[in-house]
Amino acid sequence: MNVERRGQKYFIETYGCQMNESDTERIGGQLEELGYAPADDLQDADIVILNTCSIRQNAEEKVYGKIGEVKKLKERNPKVLLGIAGCMAQENKNKLIQRMPVIDFVIGPYHIHDLKDIISRHDAVGSHVVMAELNSQRVQDYSELRAVRKSKIFAWVPIMQGCNKYCTYCIVPYVRGKETSRTIPDVYGEVKRLAEEGYKEITLLGQNVNSYGLDFRDGTNFGELIRSLDDIEGIERIRYMSSHPRDMTFDMVDAMAESSKVVRHMHLPVQHGSNAMLRRMNRGYTIEHFKELLAYVREKMPDTVITTDLITGFPGETEEMHKETLQLLEDLRFDSAYTFIYSPRRGTPAARMEDQIDDATKHRRLQEIMDVENDISLACNQQMVGKTYMVIVEGPTKQTEDNWFGRTSGNKMIIFPKEKNIAIGDTICVKVDTAQTWILKGQMVE
Ligand code: SAH
Ligand code: SF4
Ligand code: F3S
Question: Which of 19, 62, 205, 207 to mutate to test the pocket of ligand 3 (most atoms within 8 A of CB)?
Fold first, then answer.
């Protein structure tokens, strides 16, 4: 391979979930090994990579808009390379280039380690290159790639790829392949290295961390992983994203509760308040089971911040079913709920269901859910007023250098005036004095 790009710059734009953000760090690692340096702005880049997401229609539309912007850049400087990575790359493969010849190469999520090869092939043949096979054998190669991490304190650690759940609305299993886990020693090794480099907080990533290790069929599971990471000195917090009620066991909750590092935040998507909808979505649990799990989490880890995802306007959703979601919010009092309007995805069973909901109804229901949940989120935050929390400092706010912010173990963001010498990554105590729906404000205390 004979590629050398010293003096040239790269720009990566990331869409979608944390898994994509983590992939971007490894794509950056590959590019830097070729000699590319990061560009601050797309306009200064010699290579642009859009790391894309297909989860909803509006995620795809943003990418098409950006491709238009790069097209203009290439009109001025035809040497600029444009690569499409991520889930749209996997979904559309050759079709993307046929439709938009401005794209130089397409690289699926299982080909990040082939990036240098793709660029050298593009150099050699001067035409489009597409690599997008779902080859889960390559998860191990991926693990070994260097990541150019944005932060020196917080790090993503993917523990698995893919998803086998086939929720009827979701594109992920088609674009990320089947669940394939990294081994415990492999994950442990990465976390240990991160600790040695000074990282304090890691986030274990998977579409469904609760099915971690099940693909080995030897008893490996998420609880065992959590228990094994507990002795790594230097790591203060272990986060994880996302949990799935179907595979979560009471033993996993025990493992988290026993751990000295696992945070008191759980993102546990419920998706809907109606059992009939959950069945149609193929979620594999009932509301009753979800409530039982949540009660156990709250019993074992009483201050856990619980957040969730909801989909509104799924095919066949009646007014009654929608009201069941509103009632569930009142009953379970999530700290926040990310609510999405159902977006039909090509090739998924729900897109073919007949009783699709019209846009006006979807938007009204979204608003009703947000109205209920915003009051609950505010009430949850108000309960924090007057209490003191350990916060890992993330830095100044965008608005002013005088105000800094950090997050609690429960992942709540607190803004506070910077009073004395603190640095990014310090663990400090902050007493909350003001609560809003999305953020909290407070003062540093000794
Ligand atoms: N693996 C995670 C979710 C990943 S996608 C889980 O199962 O919990 C993040 C969220 O996007 C989902 O929880 C769901 O609420 C939403 N989502 C996925 N597909 C969607 C679609 N077609 N339309 C609207 N929202 C969708
Ligand atoms: Fe999609 Fe369901 Fe898998 Fe989550 S569990 S990624 S929603 S198929
Ligand atoms: Fe989007 Fe792919 Fe993540 S579809 S949400 S980037 S796994």
Answer: 19
Shortest-distance atom of ligand 1 to CA 348 = 22
How far from 159 is each of 287, 341, 445, CA to CA, in Å? 28, 29, 36
> Which of 15, 23, 24, 55 should be mutated for ligand 3, with most atoms under 8 A from CB?
55
Is 242 touching ligand 3 by the criterion CB < 6 Å?
Answer: no
The yes-or-no verdict on residue 1 having pLDDT over 60 is no
Are 425 and 415 spatial neighbours (Cβ–Cβ below 8 Å)? Answer: no
**pLDDT the model gives residue 401:** 87
- The answer, as to whether pTM is greater than 0.70, is yes
| Token representation of residue 392 | 């890992």
Do 417 and 403 form a contact (C-beta atoms < 8 A)? yes
Candidates 116, 40, 124; CA nearest to 83 is: 116
Q: Is the CB of 172 under 6 A from ligand 3?
A: yes
pLDDT at res. 234: 96
Q: pLDDT (tens digit, 9 = 90+) per residue, 192-218?
A: 999 999 999 999 999 999 999 999 999
SS3 241: strand
Q: Which residue from 234, 425, 235, 389 is spatially nearest to 303, judged by alpha carbons?
A: 389
Residues 6+ apart with CB under 8 A from 193: none
Distance set, CA 116 to CA 10, 35, 166 (Å): 13, 11, 33
Q: Which atom of ligand 2 is nearest to the CA of 163?
A: 3
Q: Tell me whether strands 9-14 and 37-38 are parallel, antiparallel or unpaired.
A: parallel
When pLDDT is cut at 50, 70 and 90, the band that residue 333 belongs to is very high
- Cα separation, 90 vs 109, in Å, equals 7
Rounded distance, CA 117 to CA 114, Å? Answer: 5
Region 166-188: mean pLDDT is: 96
Q: Per-residue pLDDT tens for 21-45?
A: 999 999 999 999 999 999 999 999 9
